[in-house]
Amino acid sequence: MEEINLKVPKTLNDITVRQYRKWAKVFESNKDVKNNFLEIKLLETFCNISALDAQKLPLGSADHAIEHVVGLLNQEPELTERFKMTGSDGVTVEFGFIPNLSKMTLGEYVDLDTYIGKSEEMHRLMAILYRPIHKSYENLLGYRIADYQGTDLMAEVMNDMPLDIAFGALVFFYHLEKKLLTHTMLSSLGTVTNHKLINSAEERKNLQTVTDGIKAYMLLQEERRSKSKLRLNSLSTKQ
Fold it and tell me: At what angle do helices 37-46 and 17-30 cross, to 10 degrees?
């Protein structure tokens, strides 16, 4: 029997935003399909295997890989403020999360509100939230990121961003929104390194405005993730 090379990602860090966007598009279009299509597409997307080879896998190996990947996709990582990526040209760039959410520009907010509800636009969303850190701040605790000039410049780069960092940013916003909704623990934002403590009513209002669009999306994401988890956990390669 021909040996099939199945490359199962060990951690969420081994999955890219590009792969997740591809999977999200397939899942949304086929979530009600009752056959093995989603299982095969999951293996094809995340395990570097063709659909034909996926169908040739031993039952136990396929089930184990599917269960492992589903577990990764349901993780909720913590926020990563700074990370580095090396491009195909060998150049390494350090990116930083927006240091001061209450001072987000109108352009940043409009684009954030546009892309945050769309899984297929996750690369553009991340190009808003993470931007290159000025070299003068390298190895320093604080940092300054490049001015926002739209998403076209960095969206393609963010396709190669590790998924744990992208998920961490979304989870951060979700928990932030929960705090804003209960009107408690707003000062806890100051415990996040480099994130300014919200002291004034004006700053609090600005942040509430920023998160208004995020609120609806994160509630939808929570429901979607729950349904996705139940659906994928119920899948089986057994006929």
Answer: 170
